[in-house]
Write a structure and sequence with these properties.
Elements: H1 5-11, E1 20-24, H2 31-44, E2 52-56, H3 68-80, E3 87-92, H4 100-110, E4 113-119, H5 128-132, E5 137-141, H6 147-156, H7 163-173, H8 177-181, H9 185-208, H10 213-225, H11 233-242, H12 249-261, E6 265-272, E7 277-287, H13 290-296, H14 304-318, E8 322-328, E9 331-338, E10 344-349, H15 356-363, E11 375-379, E12 391-394, H16 395-401
Parallel strand pairs: 1-4, 1-5, 2-3, 3-4, 6-8, 10-11, 11-12
Antiparallel strand pairs: 6-7, 8-9, 9-10
Helix pairs in contact: 7-13, 9-13, 11-12
């Protein structure tokens, strides 16, 4: 597996700091491999194997440690045998352990340790964990492979494939690392079906005690069918009722929150660039992985503009940007991206700039923004349509070279 240096470079400076390092992301996004690579980094830098406890709670081998008290005693016994040396704790999918929040808090107090955890639910860093170790954790959002990583992995696997062909695979099958390693289309589809069912059953249904699984799946399908479109819980409710499915806005709100917490979709709020305020209605949603989305969507229509939007959204997330949908007067800007240095990038995404009216539609909103932050239009076109200080990128060049 390729080294995911952009994540390792962020996490490694926190080694031996008195903070729990929490890696959070959708199932099979590569968190386990990152834990392994962090463990290898410790071994390469003088930490001995017996100082490390590594437990993957999805493995049947470690089922007895799903009991919090048993896990606690196991670690204490291991620590007492080290003669005062620091112990390094790696816990994969920690949320499956009973009272795991209290156990981690106790480790911080009782022993000399450095803790790394992963989880597949955004609640990992809220509620009980925040209560028990407030101010003593740092979290890292882990996403499936970007296109740059997909290309690096393809080279590692010895695949002779053009960037264009690989990009077509990427927008169809997404960037879940294991999926990228599977050779056949059928095996990829089977894998994606298994991941989707695992997310639905383990991370949504069982965790939230949902009884109406059919309604849950229909809401997920609706959200993923409509990536990049603004809508509210009320509009989802109306759409379901038009199909003969009776539900309530409150139920839809609850189910959407569960889906968001399982990290299978991401919500993006709208921002008024003139009024400098977040707008509370009609959020947009994007899939955390296009492979999962394309596998379960109901529509046969392929909207490349929306697929491209989703790809660019995930790319900017993986680069560490916070993202809003922009509104300037009557026009919308696909993404306003902010980084920690308070810099901004404005982005419009289209499939093809096929005629002058399309070019005008994509470039015009930028003319109403009176700052000097970078403004990009991204499409599949090979010809450079840059104008008036607005940079146009071919999408593959943008993903690989900016």
């Amino acid at each position: 597996m390729i080294k995911r240096t952009k994540y390792l470079d962020k996490i490694i400076p926190f080694i031996d700091k008195p903070l729990i390092k929490a890696l959070v992301g959708v199932r099979r996004s590569g968190k386990t491999v990152l834990l392994t690579q962090l463990k290898e980094h410790l071994l390469d830098n003088g930490i001995s194997e017996n100082q490390i406890v590594y437990i993957n709670f999805e493995s049947f081998v470690y089922r007895k440690y799903l009991n919090g008290e048993t896990l606690y005693q196991h670690v204490i016994d291991k620590y007492e045998g080290l003669g005062g040396k620091k112990i390094y704790l790696f816990f994969d999918e920690i949320q499956d352990v009973s009272e795991w929040e209290k156990i981690l808090a106790s480790f911080l107090v009782d022993i000399n340790c450095d803790i790394y955890i992963t989880g597949s639910n955004s609640k990992l860093l809220s509620g009980e964990l925040a209560t028990h170790i407030a101010g003593r954790h740092v979290h890292f959002d882990i996403y499936p492979f970007t296109f740059t990583e997909v290309r690096a992995y393809a080279k590692e696997l010895g695949r002779d494939i053009s960037d264009e062909a690989l990009f077509n695979e990427y927008i169809e099958f997404g960037g879940l690392p294991q999926c990228c390693s599977l050779p056949e289309k059928q095996s990829k589809q089977t894998y994606l079906e298994d991941i989707f069912n695992t997310i639905v059953v383990n991370d949504i249904v069982e965790r939230n005690k949902i009884s109406d699984i059919d309604l849950l799946k229909r809401i997920i399908v609706f959200l993923l069918d409509n990536i990049g479109n603004p809508f509210s819980a009320n509009s989802i409710c109306k759409a379901l009722k038009s199909e003969g499915i009776n539900t309530t806005v409150n139920t839809v709100v609850s189910y959407v929150s569960y889906i968001l917490k399982a990290l299978v979709i991401c919500s993006v709020k709208r921002y008024d660039t003139k009024g400098k305020a977040l707008l509370s209605t009609n959020e947009k949603y994007y899939s955390v992985d296009l492979g999962i989305r394309n596998h379960i969507k109901s529509s046969e229509l392929i909207d490349y503009s929306k697929l491209f939007e989703n790809v660019v959204y995930l790319e900017m997330l993986s680069r560490g940007y916070e993202i809003n949908v922009g509104k300037v007067g009557e026009y919308e800007i696909d993404f306003i991206c902010y980084n920690r240095d308070k810099e901004k990038i404005y982005i419009q995404v289209a499939y093809l700039l096929s005629d002058e009216s399309t070019i005008e539609r994509e470039f015009r909103p930028f003319s109403y923004i009176d700052d000097n932050y970078p403004k990009y239009v991204i499409s599949a076109d090979m010809f450079d349509f840059s104008r008036n200080g607005i940079k146009h990128y071919n999408i593959i060049d943008f993903l690989l070279n900016t």
